[in-house]
Amino acid sequence: MTRHCFTLQVDPRRLEEYRKAHAAVWPEMLEALRDAGWGHYTLHLREDGLLVGVVETDDLGRAQAAMEATDVNARWQAAMAGLFADLPDGRPDRALEVLPTIFDIDAQLAAAGRQGARP
């Protein structure tokens, strides 16, 4: 599994709506994400609207494509689109800015022959 980090920009005037929507994500959407391989998926929201997502998956492109093929994702993206700033095609899921990993403590500990994550 590889961990991926991405950003999006929520409209700062719509933060409460965004939080409310994510406090009770549709069960069908949760199952679709799980089935598409989105593991340990978390979202973090700063007060200026910066949204940071972290997901673990074997293949991010494949996981995105699997979600793209679901009806529930199309409905969810349509429901969420108005909460974001500056979406090129109106779909938040197509506007992710994936950030490269520049530091991984476990990888560096392993390279140094030391124990990684705490037991």
How does this model look, in words?
- The structure is a single chain.
- This protein is α+β, with helices and mostly antiparallel strands and 119 residues long.
- It has one domain: Alpha-Beta Plaits, CATH 3.30.70.
- Helix content is 37%, strand content 22%.
- Strands 2-3-1-4 form a four-stranded antiparallel β-sheet, with no helix packed on it.
| Neighbour order of strands in the largest sheet | 2-3-1-4
Shape: globular
Instruction: Give the termini distance in whole angstroms.
Output: 18 Å
Q: What is the number of domains?
A: 1
**Percent of residues in helices:** 25-40%
Essential attributes:
119 residues, alpha+beta, Alpha-Beta Plaits, four-stranded antiparallel β-sheet, globular, Dimeric_a/b-barrel, L-rhamnose mutarotase, Rham/fucose_mutarotase
In short:
The protein has 5 helices and 4 strands; from the N terminus they run βααββααβα. By secondary structure, it is an alpha+beta fold.
Topology, element by element:
Layout: E1 2-9, H1 15-23, H2 27-35, E2 39-45, E3 50-57, H3 60-68, H4 71-80, E4 97-99, H5 105-111
Antiparallel strand pairs: 1-3, 1-4, 2-3
Protein name: L-rhamnose mutarotase
InterPro entries: Dimeric_a/b-barrel, Rham/fucose_mutarotase
